[in-house]
Amino acid sequence: MVYQKIDLDQLGAEAALLTPTYASRSLTSGIPKYELPEESVSPQIAYNLIRDELGLDGNSRLNLATFVTTWMEPEARQLMTETFDKNLIDKDEYPQTAAIELRCVNILARLWNAPESETATGCSTIGSSEAAMLGGMALKWNWRKRRQAQGKPADKPNLVMGINVQVCWEKFCRYWEVEPRFVPLEGNRFHLSAEEAVKRIDENTIGVIAIMGSTFDGSYEPVKAINDALEHLNGETGWEVPLHIDGASGGFIAPFLDPQLEWDFRLKWVKSINASGHKYGLVYPGVGWIIWRSREELPEELIFHCNYLGGDLPNFALNFSRPGNQVIAQYYNFLRLGRQGYRQIQQACRDTAMYLAREIAQMGCFELLTDGSDIPVFAWKLRDDFADQNQFTLFDLADKLRERGWLVPAYAMPKNREDLVVQRVVVKEGFSRDMADMLLEDLRRAVAFFEAQPHYRAKSSGSHFHH
Ligand SMILES: *Cc1c(COP(=O)(O)O)cnc(C)c1O
Predict the structure, then answer these.
(1) Which atom of ligand 1 is nearest to the CA of 276?
(2) How deeply is 203 buried, as exposed, middle or buried, from its count of CB atoms within 10 A (0-12, 13-18, 19+)?
(3) From ligand 1's centre to the CA of 103, what distance in Å?
């Protein structure tokens, strides 16, 4: 008789293959989380472990808190997957990726009405925050040059903006040592006004930030009025205080839905604009853009010319290596959608936002701050008489909605309206009218739940902690 010699290693490998996935040792015991494990696991096991853990995250499609894209077409996903390996900075090795970035810069400069006679000047970034750093630096450098040319001190720069700015502008001021001059909210004014901005400007003001689409309530700030006030002030004083537009969301909304609205380079004092490609530019995170009105608004000293891997590489960025596939996906959207496609998508978002806002206003206990007619974002508060009854707060409502998976944040407004608590919805591509109706159903159910328990608040107060 001939015995076949059994290869034990072979047997082990076979057993591993035949073991039902979730019966394997790696999936029936804990895993090391805070130190590098000694041994490897199979790709299948690593995949399952991590994917399952992420099941505890919120569902991004029910995330009405975020401005960031949560849905792209399968072809866009595929293109992004195929181009994960391209490093955007290697312009010499990936010249077509570089050419595509340059096309996007040209497309945006035109979309925002930069003078045709000028060279399109700008770059992609990792998001609006990096774009804000670059835009703010250009403001600071230009101001300093103006001051030095006049033989005046340039050691106390300040930046004027509404208190409702996104945190990136506070970061800019802290990191680059610029005094932030915030205009507080007042009464029913929830963003910057020309009058209040002008009051805080002096010869040390490097610029004014105006937001197209305040994150707190989705409203456009009055850019034209601020521009006109600057025209007057600069004419009287000889200062040259410029305007930077934070169009993180609105930079991709206003050109398609409000073409008559003047907020961009059509206005004389608008020198630079940023936008988030990963918000209403409709790309997955993270890509942002900044465009200057003309070449001369971007100080040459800020540009690094690296002789890198065989080419001259003009570079203005905080990062070096970055994924190229997000820029490629941005160009995919430009090519695939065109003006018509962007207009249709943004209009559908606005229609859904305004529909939701109307329905919420009709529920009786809420009052709108905004109705979704600027960017497709709106906010509401509890009606004062309902707030007085103290049956429930918007924080309670946010918690209740979360039971169903909806992420609809509640928060207090900034200074001087910290007393005002609001709730906000951001409508994005992928949020259908049908989903909006489901949200409305759940809102009505939640309100009915609170109304059926008049003592809910008294019981639960103290057990909830909210910022
Ligand atoms: C989201 C946002 C930012 C920050 O943008 P990121 O792309 O997330 O870095 C800045 N300003 C405004 C108005 C925003 O809405």
Answers:
(1) 7
(2) middle
(3) 23
* pLDDT at res. 5: 64
| Per-residue pLDDT at 91 | 86
pLDDT on residue 464: 46
Closest by Cα among 332, 299, 303, 329 to 88: 329
- Residues of the chain with pLDDT below 70 are 1-11, 307-313, 458-467
Residue 465 contacts by C-beta under 8 Å, 6 or more apart in sequence? none
Pair 375, 218: CB distance under 8 Å = yes
Q: How many helices (H) and strands (E) does the chain have?
A: 15, 13
**CB contact burial 412-428 (16+ within 10 A = b; e otherwise):** bbbeebeebbbbbbbbb
Residue whose C-alpha is closest to residue 159's, from 131, 214, 201: 201
**Rounded Cα distance, 191 and 183, in Å:** 8
Rounded to 5 degrees, what angle do the CA atoms 379, 390, 421 make? 25
- In a mutational test of the pocket of ligand 1, which residue from 129, 219, 322 has the highest number of ligand atoms less than 8 Å from its CB? 129
pLDDT at 463: 43
In one-letter notation, the amino acid at residue 361 is: A
Shortest-distance atom of ligand 1 to CA 288: 7
Amino acid, single-letter form, for residue 164: N
pLDDT at residue number 386: 84
Test site for ligand 1: of 163, 166, 212, 273, most ligand atoms within 8 A of the Cβ? 166
Please state the pTM of the whole predicted model: 0.93
Mutate to test the pocket of ligand 1, among 63, 66, 67 (most ligand atoms within 8 A of CB): 67
CA distance 301 to 295: 13
β-sheet bridge partners, residue 121? 292
Q: Tokens in use for 85?
A: 């390996």
Residue whose entry in the numeric block shows the structure tokens 């207090």: 412
Q: Whose CA is nearest to atom 14 of ligand 1?
A: 248
Query: Could you give all domains of the chain from N- to C-terminal order, each with its CATH number?
Result: 77-334 (3.40.640.10)
Residues with CB under 6 A from ligand 1: 67, 127-129, 166, 168, 211, 213, 215, 246, 248-249, 276, 288
Are 376 and 258 spatial neighbours (Cβ–Cβ below 8 Å)? Answer: no
| Assigned token pair, 229 | 């006030």
**Contact 182/162 with Cβ under 8 angstroms?**
yes
Q: Which two tokens stand for residue 300?
A: 């040459």
Q: How far apart are CA 402 and CA 63, in angstroms?
A: 10
Residue-level pLDDT at 1: 56
